């Protein structure tokens, strides 16, 4: 095991974005670290307001910070509101990072996204691929904001000697995911499609394209565990990819989801729809070298995500964006679905975006 260079025991740890999928998983994981967990709802502090952020941070004085809050949304929302995604994410991360510096936070982790990498980066994508090519146009504003966040952490380290680090998770799934068929990513979309088809007694579910594209997935509880591991053992300017290091074809994934959900019909392919990027896999070599590897297998993780969906532990978005607020900070996050998924479905099957 690598040396622990920063213990969380006895520390005051602020999780920004504690009601989002990643933030809530970090809160769950921190429960075993012997620390005091600090959280704040939007009603208490709007992370887009510098005065509110600095006042809250000055009053509560956290020792460590996990910055998991962000404005997130689907393809439609990113396309329609690029200024909102760029401004809101830039301003909230700048406010939290600068306030952390001002109140002398000992350590901070900024959570980014795999979308920071060029659209046509070599596979598997290594950390050094950052800024080596053009971004995916559909979420460029969000990606630029995330790149700015990790560079801001690096700048505070260089100029002020602050122990601020950055982690870039791959495609995540699990409790608190977005299962809205109009805006969800492939994993929750497949789970919901298979469930609704089973409930309706339908004979097939349809996926976009050939089903051959390869995608990487990591359970959000594994992501949280990796984040705590990095917080305790890593200190450097460069960001770290957080992923499983393995990928699976969309068609194989659909079959595994159907098996877990109990859907016994056929999986058909709509060849009139695009496949999207052939492969999207982040290199996990750096994280493995730091002594961490995932513990939750894909089938086990899908089962956990399905149970969370059945129990209503998920998020739904309106028009491809979070319900009017910042993901993870909103007072109306994902606590319970309005209608239990165990009952009759309320949405028609809608294909997921092929690049996710």
TrEMBL record:
Active site: 142 (proton donor/acceptor)
Top-rank lineage group of the source organism: Bacteria
Domain NAD-dependent epimerase/dehydratase: 13-243
Positions with a binding annotation for substrate: 193, 208, 215, 275
Pathway assigned in UniProt: Nucleotide-sugar biosynthesis; GDP-L-fucose biosynthesis via de novo pathway; GDP-L-fucose from GDP-alpha-D-mannose: step 2/2
Keyword annotations from UniProtKB, A to Z: Isomerase, Multifunctional enzyme, NADP, Oxidoreductase
EC number: 1.1.1.271
Binding site for NADP(+): 17-23, 111-114, 146, 169-172, 185
Top-level enzyme category: oxidoreductase
Molecular function (Gene Ontology), one example: NADP+ binding
Reaction(s) catalysed by this chain's protein: GDP-beta-L-fucose + NADP(+) = GDP-4-dehydro-alpha-D-rhamnose + NADPH + H(+)
Tagged with keyword Isomerase: yes
GO biological process: 'de novo' GDP-L-fucose biosynthetic process
Alphabetized Pfam families for the sequence: Epimerase
Function field: Catalyzes the two-step NADP-dependent conversion of GDP-4-dehydro-6-deoxy-D-mannose to GDP-fucose, involving an epimerase and a reductase reaction.
Record protein name field: GDP-L-fucose synthase
């Amino acid at each position: 095991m690598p040396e622990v260079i920063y213990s969380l025991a006895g520390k005051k740890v602020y999780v920004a974005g504690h009601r989002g999928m990643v933030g809530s998983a970090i809160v769950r994981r921190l429960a075993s670290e012997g620390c005091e967990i600090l959280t704040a709802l939007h009603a208490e502090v709007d992370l887009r307001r510098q005065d509110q952020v600095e006042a809250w941070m000055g009053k509560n004085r956290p020792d460590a910070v996990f910055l998991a809050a962000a404005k997130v949304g689907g393809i439609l929302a990113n396309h329609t509101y690029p200024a909102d995604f760029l401004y809101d994410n830039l301003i909230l991360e700048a406010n939290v990072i600068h306030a952390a510096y001002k109140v002398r936070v000992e350590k901070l982790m900024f959570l980014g996204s795999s979308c920071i990498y060029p659209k046509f980066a070599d596979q598997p994508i290594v950390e050094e691929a950052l800024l080596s090519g053009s971004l995916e146009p559909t979420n460029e504003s969000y990606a630029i904001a995330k790149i700015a966040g990790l560079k801001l952490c690096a700048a505070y380290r260089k100029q002020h000697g602050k122990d601020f680090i950055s982690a870039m998770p791959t495609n995540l799934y699990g409790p608190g995911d977005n299962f809205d068929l109009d805006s969800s990513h492939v994993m929750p979309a497949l789970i919901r499609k298979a469930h609704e088809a089973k409930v309706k007694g339908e004979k097939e579910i349809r996926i976009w394209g050939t089903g051959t594209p390869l995608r990487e997935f990591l359970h959000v509880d594994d992501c949280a565990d990796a984040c705590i591991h990095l917080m305790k053992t890593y200190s450097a300017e460069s960001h770290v990819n957080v992923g499983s290091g393995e990928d699976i074809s969309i068609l194989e994934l659909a079959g595994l989801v159907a098996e877990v959900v109990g859907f016994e019909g056929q999986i058909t392919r709509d060849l009139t729809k695009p496949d999207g990027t052939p492969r999207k896999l982040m290199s996990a070599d750096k994280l493995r070298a730091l002594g961490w590897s995932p513990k939750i297998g894909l089938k086990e993780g899908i089962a956990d995500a399905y149970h969370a969906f059945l129990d209503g532990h998920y998020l739904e978005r309106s028009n491809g964006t979070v319900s009017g607020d910042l993901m993870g900070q909103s007072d109306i996050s994902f606590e319970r679905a309005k209608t239990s998924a165990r009952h009759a479905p309320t949405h028609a099957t809608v294909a997921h975006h092929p690049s996710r």
